Amino acid sequence: MKSISVFGGNGFLGRAICKEAIQRGWTVNSVSRSGKPVQSNEPWVEKVNWVKGDVFQPKTYESVLKTSDAVVHSLGLIWENQDYKKLINLESSGASNPLKTLAQAFQVFTSSKGSNPMEKEVFNTYDGLNHQSAIVLAEAVAENLSDEWPKSFPFVYISADFKSPSPAEYLKSKQITEIELYEMQPQLRPIFMRPGFMYDENNPRNMRHDVKKILELIGKIDTKNLIGLPQTVSIQKVARSILDHVAEQGFVGPVNMDQMQ
Ligand SMILES: NC(=O)c1ccc[n+]([C@@H]2O[C@H](COP(=O)([O-])OP(=O)(O)OC[C@H]3O[C@@H](n4cnc5c(N)ncnc54)[C@H](OP(=O)(O)O)[C@@H]3O)[C@@H](O)[C@H]2O)c1
User: Fold this and answer.
1) What's the 77 CA to ligand 1 centre distance in angstroms?
2) DSSP conformation letters of 229-249
3) Which residues of 19-55 are buried (b: 16+ CB within 10 A; e: fewer)?
4) Residue 230 phi/psi, 5° resolution?
5) Which residues, including other chains, have CB under 8 Å from residue 125's CB and lie 6 or more apart?
6) Which Pfam families does this chain map to (predicted)?
7) What separation in Å is there between the alpha carbon of 9 and the centre of ligand 1?
8) Which pairing describes strands 253-255 and 3-7: parallel, antiparallel, or unpaired?
9) 3-state secondary structure of 78
């Protein structure tokens, strides 16, 4: 049996990774500041070891690293103004009415304040959460490797589809992190997941599902993607792909969208 630790395991993608790993019979730890997710009574949730820890403070999770065979870093920001999380996690008015959801989305965007640079902290910037947190974690993993560990240690980083339209600083933070993690071989075996826009295939009432439908609708008209819209992929597919690549001895480097479908 394998043991995996998912940092951000109670987040949107993180939960799907934890659930998939439990279904495969793996031992699963989730590390995040709030620990166990509230409002969840699915049976797999009880099988996860929910640890409260801060990625920037390795002392809070070192014991978990010592018993892991693989680590996933699944935390980050797409926009530094975190109002977007409130927006994309909205429950929509129904999968059949994506336009009504768009109107709701517009309301959230127009009512939200821009990010105040004075309020920026390491935990809410691209460089802090997308880049530095991954390096802090990777260094903690490397320091805690047992002498008996025979091979490179699988370290999964959730990067981004560089072809998707995204803020330049966001993509830059992902790119820099990939480069620095790549240089941590052979101690680590870095795996870079590069998903486009992610949605939950089991939750059609979520705003992300509506956005996916709209993107696919436009894609039917703009078949050559001249507009340059992001490709979509479900968190379930990304989760399966992560665990497949962790299990594939010797796999290292990027996993692009076509490899996740
Ligand atoms: N969503 C997309 O469509 C998409 C597309 C491409 C790439 N990505 C990337 O995928 C990754 C996951 O995205 P997501 O949408 O699943 O994120 P999310 O739902 O916001 O989850 C973030 C997780 O990180 C944890 N976290 C935040 N700060 C932490 C800290 N200091 N220490 C420990 N845990 C911390 C949060 O839990 P606590 O608050 O409890 O700490 C939460 O579990 C990100 O790197 C993102 O850039 C997302």
Assistant:
1) 7
2) PPPEEEHHHHHHHHHHHHHST
3) bbbbeeebbbbbbbeeebbeeeeeeebebbbbbebeb
4) -70, 150
5) 77, 80
6) Epimerase (PF01370)
7) 8
8) unpaired
9) coil
Q: What single DSSP character describes residue 22?
A: H
Residues lining ligand 1, CB < 6 A? Answer: 7-8, 10-14, 31-34, 54-56, 74-76, 78, 85, 123, 158, 160, 195, 197-198
Distance in Å, CA 144 to ligand 1 centroid: 24
CA distance 131 to 120: 15
- Atom 36 of ligand 1, nearest CA residue: 8
Are residues 155 and 190 in contact, defined by beta-carbon separation less than 8 angstroms?
A: yes
| C-alpha to C-alpha distance for 233 and 26, rounded to whole angstroms | 24
Cα(5)–Cα(27) distance, integer angstroms: 9
Taking the centre of ligand 1 as the mean of its atom positions, its distance from the CA of residue 187, in whole angstroms, is: 25
Tell how far CA 194 is from the center of its chain.
10
pLDDT, tens only, 40-89: 789 999 999 999 999 999 999 999 999 999 999 999 988 776 666 666 66
Locus of tokens 């830059």: 172
Domains belonging to the chain, first-starting first, are 3-78+122-196+233-260 (3.40.50.720), 81-119+198-230 (no CATH)
Pocket test for ligand 1, best of 40, 75, 201 (most atoms within 8 A of CB): 75
**pLDDT of 113 above 50:** no
Q: Cα(138)–Cα(132) distance, rounded to whole angstroms?
A: 10
